[in-house]
Amino acid sequence: MMNHRALTNIKKSGLAALFLCVLGGCQSRPDDGVSGSFSLGGFLQTPYEKLEQFAAENGGEVFTAAGTPFKLTSVQSTQNLRFNASSSELTVYIEGDGRAWLTPTMPSNDPSPRSYMMVKHALADSHPAVYLARPCQFQKTESPSCTSNLWTTERFSKVVIESYGLALDQLKLQRGVSRFHLVGYSGGGAVAMALAGQRADVERVVTLAGNVDPQAWIQRHNLSSLGDVVNPLDYAGRLSRIPQRHYVGLKDKVVPPDLAKAFASKIGASCADIVELQASHEDGWGAISETELNRAINCHQPVEF
């Protein structure tokens, strides 16, 4: 028998979903990996259960990566060929901010993204690859450590970046790899750049609509401070030498395309590509091929900005 709390949660979820449908028109994007069909069973599934089903249907499995004080939900391919002893580099796809806010002033009670775009990229990669969600996204069970601050004002905080560092350490040990290729979408771009600035085992970074300079982004949108932010600019010396490619959307109003170019100039990047696409912040990124995401970054020519 369904208890009162479970029934209440379902009612709340239903009302929230209805409210968001009114705002967004209940549209799904073809490159998001989210089915446009409706089913009552899917509606009652938790975000974790939906992710688990999506991963299984696309040759993947969900697992948990180390992190403190919370763990990070992760996805990997079930094909053993993706994880073989001859591979020394692991590509890690880092999720964006997800559904952090219900309204401009009301945080979401669950930051899990609706789109599985980054999961799709990880599962389609012909190289060894893993997807890492952001803190408290796709949680299997409720965690007392998951407060809304972690996906709003503290989304780039020291504790968040440290949790990713622990996850990378665990993956490095388990997979027997020595180097990482980080791919970050939206706010995941800031996480990727911060990790690259702190670690000596990150070989290159790719961002998609990446918020690589959170402070400049805050100023651009006249937002209140995010508080405790691990600023990638603090690691300009190391980041200036790391091969990096930033895909920017010419229609992106959330992270304007000029921010990545300005960031590369600020750190004095010696090996950076800025690739412009006809994309908005939400649409267009699923169309990028894995071949393109793994394309070598040419560091032999001087970078001009």
* pLDDT averaged over residues: 82
What do we call the CATH topology? Rossmann fold
Task: Based on Cα principal axes, name the global outline.
Answer: globular
- Domains, number: 1
**Count of DSSP E strands?**
10
Q: Uncertain spans, ≥5 residues at pLDDT below 50?
A: 1-40, 301-305
Name of the top-level CATH class: Alpha Beta
Overall radius of gyration: 19 Å
H/E topology pattern: HHHEEEEEHEHEHEHHEHEH
Specify the helix fraction band.
Answer: 25-40%
Tell me the number of helical segments per DSSP (H or I, 4 or more residues long).
10
Given helix and strand content, the structural type is alpha/beta
Order of strands, widest sheet: 1-2-6-3-7-8-9-10
First and last CA, distance: 64 Å
CATH homology group: Alpha/Beta hydrolase fold, catalytic domain
Major sheet summary line: 8 strands, mixed
CATH architecture grouping = 3-Layer(aba) Sandwich
Q: How much of the polypeptide forms β-strand, as a percent range?
A: 15-25%
Which key phrases capture this entry?
single chain; 305 residues; alpha/beta; Rossmann fold; two-stranded antiparallel ribbon; 10 helices; 32% helix; globular; disordered N terminus; disordered C terminus
Written account of the structure:
This protein has helices spanning 4-24, 40-44, 47-57, 117-124, 158-175, 187-198, 214-220, 236-239, 258-266, 290-293; strands spanning 60-65, 72-77, 89-94, 101-103, 106-107, 129-132, 179-185, 202-208, 244-249, 272-277. The chain has 305 residues and is α/β, with parallel strands linked by helices. It has one domain: Rossmann fold, CATH 3.40.50.1820. The strands form two sheets. It has an eight-stranded mixed sheet, sandwiched between helices. It has a two-stranded antiparallel ribbon with strand order 4-5. A hairpin with a 6-residue loop joins β1 and β2 (72-77). The model is unreliable at 1-40 and 301-305 (pLDDT under 50).
